Amino acid sequence: MKLSVIILARTISDALFKMTSDCINTLRDSEKSLDIEVILVESNKQYHTSGFAYPNDVKVIIPEAAFNFHKFLNIGLHAATGEYIAFCNNDLIFYDHWFTEILKVADQHPKIKSFSPNGNFTTNFISDFQTGYKVRTHVFGWCFVAKRSVFNTIGDLDETFDFNYADNDYAMTLKKYNIRHAVVYHSKVKHLDPKEANIDKGDWYKIQQEKAAKSIKELPGYVAGANAFTDKKSLQDHLKFHAKWGSPKKLYRKNKIADLFIKFHLGLFNRWVMVV
Length: 276
Description:
By secondary structure, this protein is of the alpha/beta class. It is built from ten helices and nine strands. Strands 1, 2, 3, 4, 5, 6, 7, 8 and 9 form a nine-stranded mixed beta sheet that branches.
């Protein structure tokens, strides 16, 4: 059994290089007996002349395209050869047997094909896992794992979502295709906050905000106003998500119906329920 781990990185400083190296090293150390393929999708176009160098067994891919969260994950997906694919930020610390714990759930419950590790180390849980599609409760965009067969069903990740709402879109897509997802509580992966990682968002996000500010013309009735959002980029991505999946009220109703279908083992009808 082979695990392909796709890590997105932007290696432009010693701090970022160290953070990504720590991510790779803890990944290797956490599962020494497993066959792990590490694919690094690098945003620094000058990486090869930058003086930074990751281990030779790490496959570094430098896309020609500008950074786009889902596009870069798709590039890694197309290069991956494992039966399981992990999609990861580079600001992660992996703990011992994190993937082995996911495999235990997968082996015992073969209908669950998508997984997130647990980032909450302090809470006591009454079960080994919990199924669901709620973002930041069950689905974590900073690290999720799926069987390769999932992408034979859903296709590539939607590159409309270049950063914000990427995890929301993935969760909705799983529900649409009746693919079960679970957070695995004994699978521990720490997601560093910006202070721990000693980094900031960099200039990419600022550029996207400027582009978004120019592109927003009219707001639909369900948006109270641009002031409800911290920045124009977040507002634009909010609009894109609801343009695809329906207004908040419509999406609420569709989710209620889809959840009932799943509860009564009729989730195959979600493909029609989730259409806008």
